[in-house]
Every structure is written in C-alpha cells, then in structure tokens.
Amino acid sequence: MLTIVPYNPVKRNELLSTRNSLDGFYNIFDDFFRSDYSKRQNVLRNVFKVDLIENDNEYIVEADLPGIAKEEISINIEDNSLVISVEHEEEETSEAKNYIHKERHLRSMKRRINLNDVKFESITAKLENGVLNIVVPKDTTTNELRKIEIA
Q1: What is the predicted pLDDT for the residue at 42?
Q2: CA-CA-CA-CA torsion for 17, 21, 22, 23, nearest 10 degrees?
Q3: Using CA atoms, how far apart are residues 131 and 51, in angstroms rounded to an integer?
C-alpha cells in the first residue's frame, strides 16, 4: 500500500487566516511583473511534483526541484515513510545603491511517501538537472507461513 501526502502549511494557514481577501489579488500583480515568474511558479506555491514508479525490485521516486541546490534538500526516514524536505532561500537584489525594493524569500516544502517492505538502509539518491532521483530497493524476503503447534 503506497500513499503520497503533500505537505503545504501555507495553504492551510491561508484557509484559517482572517486576513484581507484582497491580499491574494495584489500578489497576482506582484507575480505578473516578476520577470522569472514562470520558472519559479512551483517553488512559490510551496509544493513540488513527485512521481513514484514501481518495478519488481525497487521503487523509484522522481521529484522535480528546478533551481534547488543539493544542500537545500533533506531526505529522511520517519515511521516507514520516505520524507523529502526542501528549505530554499531566495534573495532579489538590485545593482543600484539606492534601491527602493529588496525582497528575501524562505520557502519550506515537504513530501511524505509511505512505503512498506523496503530496505531503507540501501536507499540511494541523486540530483541531476533539477530532478531528484531516489531508488528505494524492495525487501524481497518473504515471510514464511508456519503452523504453530499448541502444547
């Protein structure tokens, strides 16, 4: 049984927030005039795409993380789950000395993938061209069915 659970604290907080409903409207204009909006759209939403492929001997997890450095990624095992976390910091700078606008963004993203019957100690990961590939070998040992004699 496999499940993929997206973790997005921002969306939850937005739903619980009592902020002005026009905040999102104004953010649309800020994003529109940002020159690299299309490249960073997924990062700004605090979620990344994950594909899960199953073969006979392994699971392959492919996570799209364009613009994310390997040092910003953490892969952990928690309660038979593979957890991929990203802490991405961005800073928009201007060459002018008297800049009027300067922003910093810290984005945190997390995906949890529940996997059963795997060899967690043999997991390998590689980040190449903005795609994180994680190979999770299956535990192919089968549990024997044995009859227990009652004394």
Answers
A1: 45
A2: 10
A3: 11
Which helix (DSSP H) or strand (DSSP E) does residue 32 occupy?
Answer: helix 23-33
The string of DSSP codes covering 70-120 is GGGEEEEEETTEEEEEEEEEEEE--SSTT-S--EEEEEEEEEEEE--SB-G
Cα gap 57→133, rounded to integer Å: 16
Query: What pTM, to 2 d.p., does this model score?
Result: 0.61
Examine the pLDDT at 30 and tell me if it is beyond 90. no
Is pLDDT of 86 > 50?
A: yes
- Report yes or no: 58 and 94 within 8 Å, Cβ to Cβ: no
CA distance 110 to 75: 10
**CATH architecture of the region 3-16+41-92+103-137:** Sandwich (2.60)
Which residue has tokens 């089968």? 142
Domain parsing of the chain, residue ranges: 3-16+41-92+103-137
